[in-house]
Amino acid sequence: MKALAVDAVWKYYGDYPALRDISFDADAGQCVALLGRNGAGKTTLLRILAGLSHPTKGRVQLFGKDHNDRAARSLTGIIGHGIAIYDELSAYENLKLYAALYALPDPHRSALEWLERTALDRVKDSPVREFSRGMRQRLAVARAFLHNPRLLLLDEPFTSLDDRAIALLQGLVRDALAAGGTVVMSTHQLREAMDLASHVVLLNRGRMAHRGERTPEMLADTGWLYRTYGEAS
Amino acid sequence: MKFLRQMLTIAAKDLRSELRTKEALNASLSFALVILLLFSFAFDPTSDMTREISGGLLWLVFAFAGVLLLNRSFARELPNDCLDALIASPLPGAALLLGKVLANYVLLLGIECVCLPVFGIFYNVRWTLQPAWLALVLLLGTWGMTVVGTVFSALTVNMRLRELMLPMLVYPVLIPCLMASMRLTTLILAGQPITGDELAWFKMLIGFDVIFTALAVALIDTVLVG
Predict the structure, then answer these.
(1) Closest partner residue to B82 among A84, A93, A127, by Cβ?
(2) Which helix (H) or strand (E) is A151 found in, with range?
(3) Please, which residues have CB within 8 angstroms of residue B209's CB and are 6 or more apart in sequence?
(4) What's the domain count of chain B?
(5) Record: contact A50-B84, CB cut-off 8 A
(6) In the 3-class helix/strand/coil scheme, how is B99-134 assigned residue by residue?
(7) Under a CB-based contact definition with an 8 Å cutoff, are residues B114 and B25 in contact?
(8) Which chain B positions have a beta carbon within 8 Å of A98's beta carbon?
(9) Tell me, what's the ipTM?
(10) Cβ–Cβ gap B225/A54 under 8 Å
């Protein structure tokens, strides 16, 4: 069973096709880098995968189930453009809230464990609005990984992260892949993406320009992919 | 059980957030008190006419103050894209909605409890004549107002003019609920028994609550994701 199967997905905003006939899949242990210029459709596709939007045509399945299925969603972790953390709550309250929503057996213990892993245990009772940017980012990472997701959907996860948060996130993604998880990651930071990716999907104005394994050429020269398969703009 | 736990988790989160920031609570409560005060200048508190419209006045105040509170219900999920994280989680849309309805219900009932004695003083109305009936009307009317307001709060959350759109959408839908609540409250404050034909207003209020709660639960996933 595929962890993720995207089958002939189209998405229209009014008359404008933001995604045109996108198909790809991912197995357990694969990391798919979703690449493309601004407006290529990366975020639209990730929002559909996350169940935040419906495709106009086509089908998305997570672990053999419809992408809106609750069981499939409980296996999915998301990092989007926002950190999805409540500023007025403490770090502990935020993580405990998400642990409860994901119906983890012991939300209290899970929250404390992830606060420790992200080095936020000493400020666990402080409101998040008092946190530095780096601390907020680490808390967002903890929130996404809290329920040990088998599929991670990361939308430009390295953007505006500090070095510590990038290292933390890269380590967690590698651990997740080693444990048989699947990662779909959209990013403009090609170096970090190629470092982690096993496969690449390149979008160009809503169309799939290339899909396949990440090759040594891509790793050696991050611009190679765009030059070979990419767009003029 | 899982559904109930998730619903209560959302309700507790919303109540905790609101009691810490007091953004909507302060605005809603002070607005309600100011409106009560201003209306009291417009009507002579000793006249019979004031007593006849007292139920209507009270529910207008609750409806105005309630919309201020309900506007924040889904809007508080917008900073940091928290709403996306909730929708993408395994939390059923109905649990999210009912959790928020529950939190709003508690807050709005709290505001109403503060407003009642103030109303009694300003308008020279004895609101303790039939406390059980009054409590029942408040519980039913507030539930109807809260469930409709919360689902429309989800619908308008991404609109730029949501503060304007919410009351424009909510008040017409609330007409049956407000009519029944106003009529019953007026009778209760006048010390008249609720019997015979007047019981039909109660049935209407209960029917409104049941129908709109069922509709809200059925439609919330469509409202949230489209």
Answers:
(1) A84
(2) strand A151-155
(3) B140, B143, B144, B147, B177
(4) 1
(5) yes
(6) HHHHHHHHHHHHHHHHHHHHHHHHHCCCCCCCHHHH
(7) no
(8) 85, 89
(9) 0.89
(10) yes
Which residue is associated with the tokens 């398969």?
A229
Average pLDDT over residues B130-148: 95
Task: Indicate which of A13, A52, A141 best probes the interface with B, i.e. most B CBs within 10 Å of its own CB.
Answer: A52
Cβ within 8 Å, pair B80-A103 = no
Q: Which two tokens stand for residue A153?
A: 């959907």
End-to-end CA distance of chain B: 28
Q: What is the DSSP letter of B22?
A: -
Model pTM? Answer: 0.91
Per-residue confidence at A231, pLDDT binned at 50, 70, 90? Answer: low
For chain A, the domains span 82-148
Residue B135 is part of which domain span? 2-225
**Per-residue H/E/C for A39-83:** CCCHHHHHHHHCCCCCCCEEEEEECCEECCCHHHHCCEEEECCCC
Q: What's the maximum distance between 2 C-alpha atoms anywhere in chain B?
A: 57
